[in-house]
Amino acid sequence: MAGRIIRSDECIAEGATVLIAVEPRFAVIRDIPLRLRPDGFGALLDAILSQQVSVASATAIRSRLAAAGIATEADVVAAGEEGLRACGFSRPKIRYALALASAGIDFDALRDLDDDALVAALAAQPGIGRWTAEIYAIFALGRADMFPAGDLALQEAARCLFALERRPTERELRAMSLAWSPWRAVAARMLFAYYRSMKSREGIS
Q1: What is the pTM of this model?
Q2: pLDDT at 203
Q3: Which of 62, 84, 139, 152 has the fewest CB atoms within 10 Å, counting from its CB?
């Protein structure tokens, strides 16, 4: 069974209050976005196209998909390799997108799985690893206690916020995040926001 679900800015505020009490250094972070989107095929496809590319590149691919009218499983199958390549998908991601479009996933059923079962079910699909599954769980399903510790932006934000000597590994950051349960997804949002503010101060988009 799924645990607590984040549904609103009020949930974010509640989680942030708890996290600041646990770790006062979180208090410097303001403007924590909800960033929820509808779950389903489109959200998971978006998580795939966002893998290992810049925000600007992912945004460009999304724009091309929208312009081409590619949104559903049927659209992706109809577009095929040529259509997806024209939108900016790499060869591996073309394969992942087509496999996902043909997988027949029951997205409604995913909502009822507990966190571990959800990650396992999604990671069984080609091109979907733990990071992609956790990103989908946080931003499409609103899972409150997910934390994508393999994300380099989160690792770098943690290094700076907590004045660490080096960037923590995925394993180290995941262990650190246990102290933030059951609001780890709010902690992730806070660290993403902190990373964006770091890059803004450095003049990097």
Answers
A1: 0.90
A2: 55
A3: 152
User: In which residue are the tokens 């507990």 written?
Assistant: 114
CATH of domain 41-139: 1.10.340.30
| Residue pLDDT, tens place only, 63-107 | 999 999 999 999 999 999 999 999 999 999 999 999 999 999 999
- Distance CA(144)–CA(5), nearest Å, equals 5
pLDDT per position as a tens digit, 168-198: 999 999 999 999 999 999 999 999 999 999 8
CA–CA separation, 170 vs 155, rounded Å? Answer: 8
25 and 176 in contact (C-beta within 8 Å)?
no
CATH top class, domain 9-34+145-201: mainly alpha
Sequence ranges of the domains in the chain = 9-34+145-201, 41-139
The CA distance from 200 to 182, in Å, is 30
Contact call for residues 186 and 19 (beta carbons, < 8 A): yes
Per the structure block, which two tokens stand in for 121?
């079910």
Q: What is the DSSP string of 3-57?
A: --B--SHHHHHHHHHHHHHH-GGGGG-----------SHHHHHHHHHTTTS-HHH
pLDDT at 151: 95
